[in-house]
Design brief:
With 154 residues, the chain is of the alpha+beta class. It has 4 helices and 7 strands; from the N terminus they run βααββββαββα. Strands 1-2-3-4 form a 4-stranded antiparallel beta sheet. A hairpin with a 4-residue loop joins strand 6 and strand 7. Helix 1 runs antiparallel to helix 2. The protein is elongated, with a radius of gyration of 20 Å.
Length: 154
């Protein structure tokens, strides 16, 4: 059975989009100051302003879509990650290829009492965006136990 991320992840994604928008606005303000001090072209300010609106707006509008289609599933043979509908991405991470599972939480995830689960293989890292603290610990134990069993069977 595929599992959906907790609803709190939407708040984290919203705040991340707003922070990114604020960074664009700070850049625009810096270019505004440069314009006042050194008469740099006024059109340079427009680029980060458009970036702020487009980037932030796009991310905020797509949060319900992103949340509705992001799923994960753990079986005895693989960890499956699925995202998107129009641009669907299905990943299967074979259990016997998993080397490590790391739990991480930046300030926004900690604020919502969530953790990201990073599943590492020899070549890449796949991430479950954010789950509750209890689920994250259980996933780490389950995945590592399955990985150890798969290595013992080899």
């Amino acid at each position: 059975m595929q599992t959906q991320l907790p609803p709190e992840i939407r708040t984290v994604w919203r705040m991340r989009a707003l922070i990114d928008g604020a960074i664009w606005l700070v850049l625009a303000a810096g270019l505004g100051v440069a314009h006042q001090l050194w008469q740099t072209p006024l059109w340079l300010i427009i680029i980060p302003l458009v970036g702020a609106v487009l980037h932030t707006g796009t991310h905020l509008v797509l949060i319900p879509y992103r949340y509705a289609f992001w799923r994960y599933q753990i079986t005895d043979s693989a960890v499956y990650l699925r995202s998107g509908y129009l641009f669907r991405e299905d990943e299967a991470i074979p259990i016997n290829r998993i080397q490590n599972v790391t739990l991480t939480a930046g300030p926004l995830l900690q604020w919502q009492k969530l953790q990201a689960v990073a599943i590492q293989t020899a070549s890449t890292t796949h991430t479950i965006a954010g789950v509750t603290l209890e689920v994250a610990a259980a996933l780490r134990e389950q995945i590592m136990q399955l990985a150890l069993e798969a290595r013992d069977d080899s």
